[in-house]
Design brief:
Bound molecules: NADP nicotinamide-adenine-dinucleotide phosphate
GO molecular function, one term: oxidoreductase activity, acting on the CH-OH group of donors, NAD or NADP as acceptor
Organism: Prymnesium parvum
Protein name: NADP-dependent oxidoreductase domain-containing protein
Distance between the termini: 65 Å
Largest sheet: 8 strands, parallel, barrel
Keywords: NADP, Oxidoreductase
Structural class: alpha/beta
Shape: globular
Radius of gyration: 22 Å
Number of helices: 11
Order of helices and strands: HEEEEEEEHEHEHEHEHEHEHHEHH
Family: Belongs to the aldo/keto reductase family.
């Protein structure tokens, strides 16, 4: 009967203001409680729950376990029911949807144009673990089991799919029960330095499908959450045709259920224009290098162009490959908030509504990189970070990489 008491306490909370550790309640698709605001009435509950005045809780917690019905016990010093470190991420706090319920380790998501929910911070496997299966295995294991992450970005080009698969498997074996968002990338046709890769003009469609199937096999999954084209083909003269063939291949894989969402990476506006001429599915994501210190929040206008299509931005290298850690501007802003420079850098990305793809092998850094959702940068700080000088030499900037 403890859950009845807890529901009563939660109901009492709802009538005053929302609990401070929870950003919102979701009820049948509508938000009824915003942090610091009075809750709005909610008369119908999804998931078979019943409306309880203004609250929407399930009648029974049998399927979620007693602890899951204990939101009032969760606070800044909460102990996690799922064994994760208590990162203060709040969007799912009162989500009474089975065992995934917890205030700890549940990551805020953004909704793609096809309705799929994509985590807002993703662990990249393309940094120091590049081409190193054992290091990748350990990083992914630590990220899921101890670091609070539940999303991994990899690529055919990183040559570490086996490590990603091993890391996920061993985390699960050791009790990790949460979801894993898994995304990978197929190289641009003709871009591979792999000697096995033929010159692909004319065979780009088949090559793209074959590579993606190979990736799924290596990752030991039937489908990924997101499949991306890693970069536009660097084949002057033929690039647009290859872009179109690659995109048709990803669309086919999407239709076959091999990916829950599809997108591109390092695609400039001209590349997207070329793709859109044949697309029946608009890319859900464009993953580009984007971080504070690029002289603008939207270098070259690509962010606006991408968002205008209805695609989301995934910002890779949100810490400028670690270079932002030595920026005095970033340090000053971090000190003003009692946060670390890395947190400020990640915050600059997510506060704009983008997703950050960042790498670290350190569990401590993983945890702190996720702890960016219950505080805000001021608009003056945001523009200072946008406009500041680049932290050292930038490479891979979209536009310079594109050949269309
Ligand atoms: N699509 C593409 O073409 C493309 C290109 C590049 C990257 N990516 C993706 O983006 C991911 C991230 O890129 P990235 O690794 O180049 O850059 P990043 O995430 O901006 O920076 C990573 C560096 O920051 C350090 N770091 C991380 N968290 C920190 C913290 N809390 N405090 C201090 N230092 C911290 C890491 O060192 P420690 O290990 O010491 O923490 C590492 O040296 C890649 O792994 C890959 O998945 C995609």
């Amino acid at each position: 009967m403890i859950w009845r008491l807890l529901l009563l306490s939660a109901g009492a909370l709802a009538q005053d203001s929302c609990p401070p550790w929870c950003a919102k309640f979701a009820c049948d698709g509508s938000t009824w409680c915003q942090k610091g605001e009075k809750p709005a009435p909610c008369v119908h509950c999804g998931d078979g729950g019943e409306a309880k005045g203004v609250s929407c809780f399930k009648e029974s917690c049998a399927d979620v376990g007693g602890d899951c019905c204990a939101p009032p016990q969760l606070n800044e010093a909460m102990k996690c029911t799922n064994g994760l470190h208590p990162v203060r991420l709040h969007t799912d706090c009162f989500n009474f949807k089975g065992a995934s319920y917890t205030c700890c380790g549940s990551l805020p998501t953004t909704t793609l144009s096809n309705g799929v929910e994509m985590p807002k911070v993703i662990l990249g496997a393309g940094g120091s673990t590049w081409m190193n299966v054992d290091k990748t295995d350990l990083m992914v294991y630590n990220a899921l089991k101890h670091g609070g992450f539940r999303a991994v970005d990899t690529a055919n080009h990183y040559r570490n799919h086996e490590g990603v698969a091993r890391g996920i498997r061993s985390a699960r074996r050791d009790g990790y029960e949460g979801e894993v968002w898994l995304q990978t990338k197929v190289e641009g046709c003709g871009n591979s330095k792999d000697p096995r890769s033929p010159v692909l003009q004319g065979h780009c469609y088949e090559h793209t499908l074959a590579r993606l199937h190979d990736d799924l096999r290596q990752l030991q999954v039937d489908r990924v959450d997101l499949a991306l084209l890693h970069a536009p083909p660097c084949v002057p003269g033929a690039a647009c045709e290859m872009v179109q063939q690659q995109w048709k291949a990803l669309e086919a894989a999407y239709a076959q259920g091999k990916a829950r969402a599809i997108g591109v990476s390092n695609y400039c506006s001209a590349c997207l224009q070329c793709l859109m001429r044949v697309a029946t599915v608009t890319p859900h994501v464009n993953q580009i290098q984007l971080h504070a210190g690029m002289g603008s929040a939207d270098p070259g206008g690509l962010v606006e162009y991408t968002l205008g299509l209805g695609a989301k931005i995934q910002a890779y290298r949100p810490l400028g490959q670690g270079r932002l850690m030595s920026s005095s501007t970033v340090h000053d802003i971090a000190n003003a908030h009692g946060k670390s420079p890395a947190q400020v850098a990640v915050k600059w990305v997510v506060q704009q509504g983008h997703t950050a793809v960042t790498t670290t092998e350190s569990i401590e850094h993983m945890r702190s990189n996720l702890d960016v959702f219950d505080w805000d940068l001021s608009s003056a700080e945001m523009s200072k970070l946008s406009n500041m000088a680049p932290p050292g030499q930038l490479d891979n900037v979209v536009g310079e990489l594109c050949v269309l």
